[in-house]
Amino acid sequence: MNLHNQYYWFKEVIPHNVCDNIIRMGNKQIERIEKYGGDTSGTTRGGGEKTKNEGKVSAKELTPKEQLESGGKYYARDSEVAWFNDQWLYDMVWPYLEEANKESGWNWDFDWAESFQFTKYKEGGLYNWHNDGGSDIHGEYILADEKMLEKCKDEKVSLPNLYTDDKTFEGKVRKISMTMNLTDPKEYDGGKLKFDLSKTHDSGVDIMEIDEINRKGSIVFFPSFMSHTITPITRGTRYSLVLWVLGKPWR
């Protein structure tokens, strides 16, 4: 899909005290989950998270082509996450979402959003090249039946990729992704958001660093099908808030 605007951003629009409050909320949630033996590691659709790849090394800054050709020799993600459904968060970001969708020229139909993902990247943390959703019929959420739900409950495992127990997700796909930077750039090194703008995803030459997101309180919206990465943290901790906006597949 050829786009005039491949992403749309707002610089430092969220007050710093609000960012700090979200960080406190996220860290408390992570601490609470870990206290009761829960898993806070960020996952990938292909099982490429560090916790499932012990003994492997970080993918670091492999180009998209190098990652595709790596044969699973590396882990692709190392982060901690927590989840929020607070209405005030949706109320805060929704006007920016609607403005971005209009002013970018996308004008895409959407009618739902997933939970907010609070993400914590400590030193060494990263999320190598990936996209958030295919946005066509192959990326549709499927409503799990009772048999599948019972099996997952008995085995204490999550639903398989793209299955959901929420009927409002059924038949919808991720169309627009959002990242909000919660951290002052002086507090960490690395952790850069980059997009792969190439059409073939194998050249490694059309890589763009999204400088507009570096400032605390800044937001960027982009198509969920766009390949992107968070480069390794080399000092400090980077916090972000992520959201995926859903709608019916393009037809």
Summed over residues and divided by their number, the pLDDT gives a mean of 90
Enter the CATH topology name: Jelly Rolls
Rg computed from alpha carbons, rounded to a whole number of angstroms:
18 Å
What is the chains' assembly state?
single chain
Tell how many strands the DSSP assignment holds: 18
| Weakly predicted, low-confidence segments | none
Residues in helix, %: 10-25%
Task: Based on the coordinates given, report the CATH architecture.
Answer: Sandwich
Shape: globular
Q: Summarize the biggest pleated sheet.
A: 7 strands, antiparallel
Order of helices and strands: EHEHEEEHEEEEHEEEEEEEEE
SSE diagram, text form:
Elements: E1 8-10, H1 16-35, E2 57-58, H2 64-68, E3 74-75, E4 77-78, E5 80-84, H3 87-103, E6 112-113, E7 116-121, E8 126-130, E9 142-143, H4 146-155, E10 163-164, E11 173-181, E12 188-190, E13 193-196, E14 207-209, E15 219-223, E16 228-230, E17 233-236, E18 238-247
Parallel strand pairs: 2-3, 9-10
Antiparallel strand pairs: 1-15, 4-8, 5-7, 6-18, 7-18, 8-16, 11-15, 11-18, 12-17, 13-14, 13-16
